[in-house]
Specification:
Helices cover 50% and strands 21% of the residues. It is α+β, with helices and mostly antiparallel strands.
């Protein structure tokens, strides 16, 4: 991965996190922008989002996708990346898997008193 893509990922993650925090409301849900993966030609950026509780994920993604053009516009104004990658929201599955593994590990621990 080139330095340009790494820098773009970091900038997009920082700015988009701020924008989403200020501009979009998620009642009864905690969302975290976990990582950004931008293509080498800067055409698109996959924005991975973790949602707690998981039952609110569909509602959160519907809300984000409804506002994607507005969020993209704000990001375009704040960052001087050209071309500005198109943002695509993705559900973060890694944190979900990590949570399940942690849960299983807790069950395997002997009961200590």
């Amino acid at each position: 991965m080139s330095d340009r893509v790494v820098k773009a990922n970091k900038l997009i993650q920082e700015e988009l996190s701020k924008i989403i925090f200020r501009e979009v409301e998620f009642p009864d849900a905690l969302i975290t922008l976990t990582r950004v993966e931008t293509t080498g030609n800067l055409i698109e950026s996959k924005i991975y989002i973790s949602v707690m509780p998981g039952s609110k994920a569909e509602e959160v993604f519907k809300n984000l996708n409804k506002r994607v053009y507005y969020l993209q516009q704000l990001l375009n104004e704040r960052l001087k990346i050209r071309p500005m990658p198109k943002i695509i929201f993705q559900k973060e599955k890694e944190t979900e898997r990590a949570g399940k593994i942690e849960e299983l590990l807790e069950k395997l621990k002997p009961n200590r008193r």
